[in-house]
Amino acid sequence: MSTRLPLPRTRLGAALALIALALPGLALASSNWSSVGSTGTPDELCTGRVSFNNNDAGLVSGATALSCTIRYQVHDTWDGNGILGVYSGARFTDNGIYSEVRTRLRAHNTATGVLTTLATLSSNSYAPAATPQTRYLTNCVALNFNANSYFIEVDLVRTAAPAGAIPGLPVLGQLRLLRCQ
Q1: Which CATH code fits 30-179?
Q2: Fewer CB in a 10 Å sphere around the end CB: N or C, the chain?
Q3: Over the stretch 10-30, which tens digit does the pLDDT of each residue have?
Q4: Distance, CA of 41 to CA of 69 (rounded, Å)
C-alpha cells in the first residue's frame, strides 16, 4: 500500500493548463520574424500598380517603367527584452535586367525621429531567374526595440524594356529576419 497522497485533481488540472499555456510562449520567444509579400503596405502613389497574388507582391504586368515601395512593420518576436542581433533575407523573383527587388531594413528612433538604414539587399546582386530564389545577407545588425521601431522597405522596380524584350516582372514572396548565432 502506497503512503503517497494523490495530487488533487484541481491542482493537477491547473498545472497542466499552465504548462499548455507556457509552452507556445516559450517557443515563440525564440522565433524569427517573417512576413509574406502580400501583407505589406504600398505607398499611396502605388495604387493600381501593385498586384497582391496569393502570398506575393509584384508590379502589375506591362512594359512601361514602374517603381513602387512597400513597407513591412517588424515586431519583436524574439525574447521580449528588445535587444538582439539579426540578419535579413528575402525570397524574390527577378526575371532579368529590366527588373529589380530592393530591400532595406530601417530603424526609426522613437526619441529623435531619425531614420537609419541598417541593411540592404538587391536582387541585382544575384543572377536573374524566372523562378523564386531566397537570398540572405551575412552581416549581423543589432536591433534595440527599446529605442527604435523597425520596418523593411521594399522597392519593386521595372525599367523600360526595348520592343521585343521580355519586360521586367519583380516579385517579393517573403521577408525574414533571423537571429544571429
Answers
A1: 2.60.120.260
A2: N
A3: 655 554 444 444 444 434 445
A4: 9
